[in-house]
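Subject: sequence -> structure tokens, single chain

Hey, anyone have a minute? Need the predicted structure for the following. Not urgent.
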Amino acid sequence: MKKYLNLPIVLLFFTGACFAVQQAVPQQGPTALTIIIDTSWSCEQDMGDFKTLSRQAIINLNPGDYLEVIAAQAGRPKIRVAETIKSSDIEQIKSMTEIVKAIPSYFLSEASVSNALEMALQRLHKTSSPGRYEHAVVIIFSDGKLSDSDTKRVLDICTEFKRKGLSLYLTGSKDTNKKLLIAANQRKIKWSLITDANPADWLRDLRQAPGEDKKQAILPVAPTKEKPTSPQEQTEEPKPKAIEQRKAQDEGIIGAEQTMVEDEGQPTEPSQERPVESENKKDKLEVRTVVDSTVSIAHP
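Reply:
Had a minute. Here:
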């Protein structure tokens, strides 16, 4: 009987613990994902992998996330998908993957990846209002066989991505442009072989990254202003020994010649003429006393 009575208590305790765990898990903000697919003729054999990896990234999006798919072409890039992920809408995910599946590679063409990347940056700047998306990431599926001019533009835009705190991933093959490989070795870009690419892991790592660190990377740091020092504060304080000597000079203890030596910074030594000087002063005082007494007698 006691076992049956304790069962509701155990269930209540378990329910409360689960609720506490759910409250402890921080809620992740929405993510803006842009996928760029290189449609150059050299990517024809890799196009199947591009579409599979794109599908993996799409199905790992959460409700509220934003997705754009841009096809990099020889001319102006084309936007194939631009939608916000709805809650529990399987048909929407299926429709997106079908659109990506229909993207072809063009015969004897060389796509401009930099144009597509520049478009992605501009659209992220327009659609991602401050505070709307917690994370923004661009994934470029390419074989990396870009021309030198296209590679230079891509690296320049990557610098702008880093300055704005946006994430960028790029795939390639063993024939990737050497400048891209050097930039990846210097950690200027995040590059991966097509066979090693894993968009699901990239998105998970991005969501687990602390948001405060990213804010600190893009916000300018205000320079610290030091309190200006007045001319009086900048001057050196006189030494205590010099103060005592000047005070003694005012009282008539030290002669003028010794004071001049102290002002020049030379070490002071007791003067041997001090007793003579004091006797002269004593004589002067006696003469002055006699004169004063004489005056007082002349004029009672």
